[in-house]
Amino acid sequence: MLRARIYLLFWIPFTLFCSLCALVAGLFDGSGRAGHAVARFWATGSLRMASVGVAVSGLELVPQDGPVIYMGNHQGNFDIHSLTVAIPRTFSWIAKEELFRVPVFGSAMRRAGYIPLNRSDGRKALRSMAQAAERIASGTSVVIFPEGTRTNDGALLPFKRGAFLLAAKAGVPIVPFTINGSMQRNPRNSLELYPGTVSVCFSAPIASKGVPEGELMERVREAIAARLEVI
């Protein structure tokens, strides 16, 4: 508990500082690259403060060009930091629209090119889904957690259809990833913090164009589960 409180004492102002930097960078760089560089600096610094390392495997399977959708399991609070460090290319996050209303932080997300997803009602959700698909098809790679939330015990939760509807609309490959160890570093709904390593393993891309939603969901789930460590 003490370790976590000391971490937060430094992490909160550090996050605010990085958000301001991303906001300023976005004023001069509309491509999102500067904002992504700030995000990597934030993620690396946050992990070091927590004494958490990242082990990456399967990088040779990640396409070198063209937009993709990264999909994987969601174990803990360090998933975002670990993926920001592990993914070798510039990418954007798809996040719930509420986060974009947070002062400074939300503006920094917009400047960095992150994509808001409105889930308040069906019509708005479909509209924001179509806008996100257009952004992806035009060249923006994104990260999505198809479970929609963090797991309590490490097991995969049921996948939400939205991620696969988005993939079908965008028609770009899905790169599955599997995270192990994040839950042990900082369990869900807990202030406990434990040093150690988070591993990120990428699997071979899965084509989404023309593949039925159910089949696509099952193939992605199998790829993620195949590398998931039993706790």
- Helix count, per DSSP? 8
- CATH 2nd-level architecture: 3-Layer(aba) Sandwich
**Biggest sheet architecture:** 7 strands, mixed
Summed over residues and divided by their number, the pLDDT gives a mean of 87
**How many structural domains are formed by the residues?**
1
The proportion of strand residues reads: 15-25%
Report the oligomer: single chain
The span between the termini is 23 Å
Under CATH, the homologous superfamily reads Glycerol-3-phosphate (1)-acyltransferase
Structure summary, number of beta strands: 7
**Secondary-structure element series:** HHEEHEHEHEHEHEH
Strand order, sheet with most strands: 1-7-6-2-5-3-4
Radius of gyration: 17 Å
Instruction: Please state the structural category.
Output: alpha/beta
Walkthrough of the structure:
The protein has 231 residues and is of the alpha/beta class. Helix content is 45%, strand content 15%.
For the structure shown, list the relevant keywords.
single chain; 231 residues; alpha/beta; Glycerol-3-phosphate (1)-acyltransferase; 7-stranded mixed sheet; 8 helices; 7 strands; globular
What is the element layout, followed by pairings?
Layout lengths: L1 H27 L4 H17 L2 E6 L11 E4 L6 H8 L5 E5 L8 H7 L3 E3 L4 H16 L4 E3 L16 H10 L3 E7 L1 H4 L10 E7 L10 H14 L5
Parallel strand pairs: 1-7, 2-5, 2-6, 3-4, 3-5
Antiparallel strand pairs: 6-7
Outline of the structure:
With about 230 residues, the protein is an alpha/beta fold. The protein has a single domain (about 1-225), classed as Glycerol-3-phosphate (1)-acyltransferase, CATH 3.40.1130. The chain has 8 helices and 7 strands.
